[in-house]
What we know:
Helices cover 29% and strands 27% of the residues. The chain is α+β, with helices and mostly antiparallel strands.
Amino acid sequence: MPSRSEPVIIETDRLLLRPLVRSDLEALAALHAEPSFWWYPFGRGFTRAETVDFLAGQAAKAERGEPAVAAVVVQRDDRLAGWAGLSVPHFLPEVLPAVELGWRLGEAFRGKGYATEAGRAWIDHAFGVAGLDELVSIYEPANDASGAVMRRLGFHLDRVTVHPELGVPLHVMRLARND
């Protein structure tokens, strides 16, 4: 994975995927406050303090050279749509070691193909630049939209399990480099 001195910046046809930065706080806090943004798994939006903690956590991961999710910026108008990228799913020890591809977008940015576009870019990065052999992507089965994006990206069901802390059902999807 990239080191602290090598931030990952990916440009797609419509999106700029770049590290989250402190100046993203206001836009990110507004997105995180939408109840649907964090509906799965929390059933509510985040407070500003939770967003501050989230940003700090992503910065700390990047500082350590660990995978951290990145800002998804719509190039046309330079608006922050949410975030996407790679992370280690520490919350689900049964799948470790693993790198997870995930995303969250604000309501105004859903249904436009942005999650699929960002996901494809991160898959290319993971299997190309980062040299990973496989990825997981994890969702609650009630979140049909995320499951559909994962299937469009080529992920297949690896296992059905339960979130160890929240007790909600989870589908673990897997994609290998040779898929």
